[in-house]
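Q: For a teaching handout, I want to show students what a protein-ligand complex looks like in token form. Below are the inputs, and the small molecule is zinc ion. Please produce the holo structure.
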Amino acid sequence: MIPRALAALLFATVAVFAAEPVPDKVVVLTFDDSSASHHAVARPLLKRLGFGATFFITEGFTFRTNKRDYMTWEQIAELHRDGFEIGNHTRDHLGVTEKSLPRLAEQLEAIAARCREHGIPAPVSFAWPGNRIHVEALPILAAAGIRFARRGGEPEVPYAKGGGVPYEPDADHPLLIPTTADARPVWTLDHVKAAVAQARGGRIAVLQFHGVPDGEHPWVNTPRERFEEYMAWLKEAGCTVIALRDVARYTAGKAAPADPMTAINRRLRAAAEAQGGAASASSTAETKPSR
Ligand SMILES: [Zn+2]
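A: Here is the structure, written as tokens, with zinc ion included.
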């Protein structure tokens, strides 16, 4: 028989290292590109609703000079102090390609350094700029302290559709977490409902927003009224709305798949079989630029 103190210790150890099961209706809420509306519109609303979220910061586009459309670092620090996650989106919004790989570490460090200057911990989450992915970047991300990285819905779903697939913490590599739905101007509440409907059976819905609204990136604009409607519905539907880093509770103790592309290739094969075609699912190490 195990002495009670030892049993308690063993239990505590398991509790710390074992992943929690994923309940239904878990939604990871993410915002890209440092839009001023993230502070002005999203911040007060998410605070009121008690939602977590990750804001992926880049100093690309006209961030340095255009403070009508982009946040200041003081505003970004305020989001951190409110409890939101600040993620890394590279200094210059660097599309990750074979050619740009040598610049990735420096681009990540530039944002991490800015965070530290403003009292924000170095980010542990990353969003692939332009939703482009490259498997050779994974060790660079890991070396920079990145634990979770969100990609787009490609290659499983073409960018033009704004769709994606639910994240499977048991199968997806933590540095290739898919977007389930990527908000577009044509969206209605039904798009949000369709994404959240996939958050069941151990799967998580990952939502990607840009500005709410976004005058600088009109092709991914979400009008303020729509955004408020979506968030109110998430609350009403009883969703658990979290930041990307919070998925750690569902991945704790799980080893990343040996082949990072396993889940992606499995979905591509299933889609090809469903279409009755023989499409190749092997050449997916790098996706095409999407924006
Ligand atoms: Zn971006």
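A: Two things your students might notice: Residues 18 and 249 are 8 Å apart (CA to CA). The chain has one domain: 21-247.
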